[in-house]
Amino acid sequence: MSITLKVGDKAPAFSCSNENNETVSLKDFKNQKLVLYFYPKDDTPGCTAEACDLRDHYTSFQQAGFQILGVSPDTAAKHQKFIAKYNLPFSLLADVNHEVAEAYGVWAEKSMYGKKYMGILRTTFVIDEKGKISQIIEKVDTKNHSKQLI
To answer: Which residues are within 8 A (CB) of 63 and not within 5 positions of it... i.e. 6 or more apart?
Structure first.
């Protein structure tokens, strides 16, 4: 399975709980620009670098009119710890059943050390005010992700 969404496509609707067990939906961001980034796991080196880079440039994103939302299969409780540990100013969705990841085509077979498993393909979608995908980044540079976006 690979990402079938393209720039210009309507972003798939979703509803998922965040770190506070509040339901967050794509429609909550109507008339706003959204950076929706999918990452494999809280508190791992690459995912931490990516989250901290977005945190460090958060003001620039806000000034440009963007909201940021991270998505991983971790639980709300793990997200709370990750947010607290790194002082993240944005919400993380607990996509434990990987429904959001599947809707965006980023839940796929991966392999590490010859072992195959299902997991998140680290991917970022930029969604415009009309709910259309304006950018897709599949080769995320975790330490410089904001530069790829801004």
So the answer is: none
| Paired sense of beta strands 33-38 and 123-127, if any | antiparallel
Q: How many Cα atoms are found within 13 Å in the side-chain-facing hemisphere of 146? A: 17
Distance CA 108, CA 121 (A): 7
Active site residue ranges: 47
Residue bearing tokens 């710890």 = 81
State the DSSP H helix or E strand holding residue 92, giving kind and residue range, or none if neither.
Answer: strand 91-94
pLDDT of residue 112: 84
Q: Indicate if the pLDDT at residue 95 is higher than 80.
A: yes
Instruction: Assess if residue 40 is contained within a domain.
Output: yes
Residue 4, in any domain of the structure: no
Question: Which domain CATH number covers 71?
Answer: 3.40.30.10
In a domain, 74, yes or no: yes
Task: Judge if pTM exceeds 0.90.
Answer: yes
pLDDT average, residue stretch 86-97: 98
